[in-house]
Write a structure and sequence with these properties.
Elements: H1 8-39, H2 42-69, H3 72-95, H4 101-129, H5 135-185, H6 200-216, H7 218-234, H8 237-249, H9 253-278, H10 284-305, H11 311-339, H12 345-356, H13 358-373, H14 375-396
């Protein structure tokens, strides 16, 4: 289960991601609640989520080119330093009560830019740090660290809010980002062939090469198509539906939302570590579709049980929801990096960032649907969207069934 941790530099990479993820989950709890406190609007909640993911769509492919052409460790270090500076300024505005809604949108957008450049560089490193037979294991452990921090970060967010309010949460976030910078600083990775910057024309050529490779490779193309449905319909629960259910449906308040995210994190850890233990290297395309279908079913069930007067049942479904959510992404990343040559991995993962940009569409649609028909019915529609994506890919794109 933990075989990849035998490799020192992967452990440093994982440590940097873990502290980064702790800050991210604190923010994922605190920022939506800050928006709801200031506006009470599901529409603004969805639009803020969209603002976070627009840069991913706009800069994701370019970020992949940067990851392939420059030192990935330096790229990662610059993005984490940028996030640290942003978090310090944002925390200062919240503590001094100078924060305004337009500032939340602005800081969220800039934060999204740093995420766009962080992810391709970080994930493209992994096959260089562990043997090929452990890539899925390493991806699953990477995802597992995020889920562990969802438990710790989200649970601590609920506790910190109860003790010191949202202001203390944003202060705490800055310390975790500082730790992520330190872990990245000591990281050493094998060098990959990189020409460096050769002018804007070459950047365009590299982008086109990435698109051509993805379109010509059946495994990469089918995984990217399936991921579009995952990000559009499956990734809105944390940022849009979760806080709405907590504050408007379940009546468990801000602290309760933190605990709800922790419960999904427990399920996420179980899912990620189970995947790391099994380390599947066959039928991974079918496994992605099966897990995506399960995610859709769990989203529908979560909404359905919220009509009942049973918080226990709601939290049980939330835990299972966490299992399904965490199992999709590691397999997707493993298939993509294994299907691409070393000098193309950043660009392929950058294209996955375009899929992540579909969260913009999902978040915006979720906000408007929740405002129009209520969070419960809107969540059911999004669950059906996950199931529909899986069925469509299975029926009309058979290449995904052949992926091992």
């Amino acid at each position: 289960m933990f075989a990849s941790l035998a490799y020192r530099n992967f452990t440093y990479l994982l440590l940097g991601q873990t502290t980064h993820a702790a800050a991210l989950w604190l923010d994922m709890v605190a920022r939506p609640l800050l928006v709801l406190t200031m506006t009470g609007s599901p529409v603004h909640l969805g639009l803020v989520m969209a603002t976070r993911t627009v840069p991913t769509m706009a800069f994701g492919a370019l970020a992949g080119v940067i990851a392939d052409n420059f030192d990935r460790r330096i790229v990662l270090l610059i993005t984490k330093l940028g996030v640290l500076v942003l978090s310090i300024i944002f925390a200062a505005l919240v503590v001094t009560d100078l924060i305004q809604l337009w500032q939340i949108y602005l800081f969220t957008f800039i934060r999204g830019i740093t995420m766009a450049f962080d992810q391709p560089a970080r994930r493209a490193m992994i096959p260089s740090l562990v043997p090929k037979n452990l890539v899925t294991n390493a991806m699953a452990l990477s995802s597992g660290s995020i889920q562990v921090m969802r438990i710790v970060g989200a649970g601590c967010a609920g506790l910190i809010i109860a003790l010191g309010g949202l202001e203390l949460v944003f202060i705490t976030i800055t310390f975790f980002y500082a730790a992520a910078v330190i872990s990245t600083w000591v990281l050493q990775i094998p060098s990959h062939v990189r020409p460096g910057y050769q002018g804007i024309k070459r950047v365009g050529i590299d982008l086109l090469e990435g698109f051509r490779f993805a379109w010509s490779n059946d495994a990469v193309k089918s995984i990217l198509l399936a991921s579009m449905g995952y990000f559009t319909f499956g990734m809105t629960f944390m940022s849009v539906f979760g806080p709405l259910f907590a504050t408007q449906i379940l009546d468990i308040g801000e602290s309760g939302f933190g605990y709800l995210m922790s419960i999904t994190g427990i399920g996420g850890v179980i899912g990620a570590l189970s995947l790391a233990s099994v380390n599947p290297n066959r039928k991974r395309g079918v496994l992605i579709l099966t897990t995506l279908t399960s995610l859709g079913i769990m989203l529908i069930l979560f909404s359905a049980v919220s009509y009942l007067d049973s918080l226990t049942l709601v939290f049980v479904i939330a835990a299972i929801l966490g299992v399904t959510t965490s199992a999709v992404f590691p397999i997707v990343n493993a298939v993509l990096v294994e299907s691409a040559p070393m000098g193309m991995r950043g660009r392929v993962l950058g294209l996955l960032s375009l899929d992540r940009g579909m969260t913009t569409l999902g978040g915006t649609l979720a906000g408007f649907l929740a405002a129009g028909i209520g969070p419960q019915l809107a969540q059911i529609i999004f669950g059906i969207g996950c199931i529909g994506t899986s069925i469509a890919m299975f029926k009309i794109y058979p290449a995904i069934r052949r992926i091992d």
